[in-house]
Structure formats: C-alpha cells, structure tokens
Amino acid sequence: MIVRLLPDAEADLEAIGDYIARDNPNRARSFVAELREKCESLAAMPQAFPLVPCYKRRGLRYRAHGNYLIFYRATGEPIARIDVVHVIHGARNYAAILF
C-alpha cells in the first residue's frame, strides 16, 4: 500500500524539525524520522485509528505520536493509498488548519 505525504504534511514536518532544531538539532532529525515512520506504518492497519468526529464524512482519521497528531485518510476500495494530510501539535486548533 502506498503512503503519500501531501505537501502540507511535508511542510508541517519541516516546520516541526526547524522548531525543535533551535534547541537540539540531533533530536529534531530523529523526531521527524519517528514521525515519518509512524506515517509509513499506517499502511499496516489504516483503519485502526479513530475518525476525526467533525470530518467523518471526509474519512479523516488521526494517529498520535507524542504531542503530535498525524491526520490522514485512506482512499480506494479496497484501500489502495493513504494520504497524510497534516502533522500538527495536539495543542493547536486543528479545525482551523485542516480544511
């Protein structure tokens, strides 16, 4: 199964890395790698994580890693691809960012 990080998700990861790198460049690299690995592992069980209540009709789901939320949707019947839409810190107002 293909896991694709959409441009907004790639930009999110870059911003997360830049923010963490201000204090700890090594941890920034390793943490962004962890987030990427969590995104890739969605292929194993794409429906294992909950739907976002206000975006159920869009099929948007989320997975937590540390303080961050990985927002994604599985597409196709049967599921053929996973699109990672955004990676956002859990304290942020995700509804204002997602769509």
TrEMBL record:
Keyword DNA-binding tagged: no
Record Pfam families: ParE_toxin
Keywords: Toxin-antitoxin system
Keyword Transmembrane on entry: no
UniProt xrefs under InterPro entries: RelE/ParE_toxin, RelE/ParE_toxin_dom_sf, TA_system_RelE-like_toxin
Gene3D superfamilies with a match to the protein in the record: RelE-like
Coiled coil segments of this chain: none
Entries under PANTHER family matching the protein: PLASMID STABILIZATION SYSTEM PROTEIN, TOXIN PARE1-RELATED
Entry similarity comment: Belongs to the RelE toxin family.
Protein name (record): Plasmid stabilization system protein
Organism of this sequence: Candidatus Burkholderia verschuerenii
